[in-house]
Amino acid sequence: ELESVGFIGLGNMGSRMANNLIKAGYKVVVHDINCDAIKMFTDKGVPAKRTPFEVAEASDVVITMLPSSAHVLDVYMGPNGLLHGGSLLRPQLFIDSSTIDPETSRKVSAAVSSFLLQEKKGSWEKPVMLDAPVSGGVFAAEAGSLTFMVGGSKDAYLTAKPLFLSMGKNTIYCGGAGTGSAAKICNNLVMAVSMLGVSEALALGQSLGIGADTLTKVFNSSSARCFCSDTYNPVPGVMEGVPASKDYTGGFASKLMAKDLNLAATSAKEVGLRCPLTSHALEIYTKLCQDGHEMKDFSCVFRHYYFGKDE
Ligand code: NAD
After folding, report:
1. pLDDT tens for residues 253-262?
2. Boundaries of each 3-hydroxyisobutyrate dehydrogenase-like NAD-binding domain copy (predicted)?
3. pLDDT at position 212
4. Residue 310 pLDDT more than 80?
5. What Rg value do the Cα atoms of the chain yield, rounded?
6. Which ligand 1 atom sits nearest the alpha carbon of residue 31?
7. Measuring CA to CA, which residue among 219, 237, 174 is closest to residue 228?
8. The whole model's pTM is what?
């Protein structure tokens, strides 16, 4: 019943996710404010719409994959936005896969459910929204192997599952509105802190006379073993194929990590929870960006923060 899919935000992630929906046989219409992004699709015969509102008029479900909270608010609530005018909507489901703060996810979800559906769909009278950010970068988006962490109504989650599985291989239902966004920023907070921990320890080890490759072997068969030591090692040459061994290119940009840590720090403040590691990690990543490494993979903290080498 979810045949017509509107996709908004055709950037690094969104363009690949939309392609996988098309491959899976969904009838997709697209929108972006960047003409070049749209052209990739119109060249293949995929229809483009001029505004989010026109996308909504043509879709059973709308998916957004935008840079940040402000863009999501604009696309939903702005002039000619998805929720522009009237009190009736065609799409029964809205899915936002952008990484944004849980507060904004809940706010937009509440706005969506203040509408009614143009046509009743089974037991659905109101449109619903899911926050469904993803883990896995551009390569996982291309390969259709993303993980979706999903907040909102459980029924809507089950209805949307086939869509998620056309773009990813794992889906996890997290709870009510905003919990998908919460899961995403918590995941990236762990990743940031563990990258700093592994980098700090490998830098200290080197200064104490043990090479990073040997110390990594110790970690990987001891209790320090983690994603940042055994899959995404930050020291050039220790592992093949990781950003560290490609001059910290590809991978997950420091500026995106700084953005996600900012979301975690802001959310922590809102609920009055002390999160000193988040604050400190945010400071370090903000400094890396200021020093000109914002486009480098976030594992570049090993070279550019601990060693301050700017070659
Ligand atoms: P991107 O900047 O490459 O793409 C965003 C797209 O949204 C662009 O094409 C832009 O033109 C479009 N856009 C911006 N404002 C718009 C508007 N008002 N209306 C229509 N289109 C608009 O970003 P990305 O790397 O694809 O990331 C998207 C989201 O996914 C971000 O929230 C990011 O944090 C998250 N994310 C990214 C990665 C990654 O590795 N890149 C991994 C996981 C999650």
Report:
1. 999 999 999 9
2. 178-304
3. 97
4. no
5. 21
6. 20
7. 219
8. 0.94
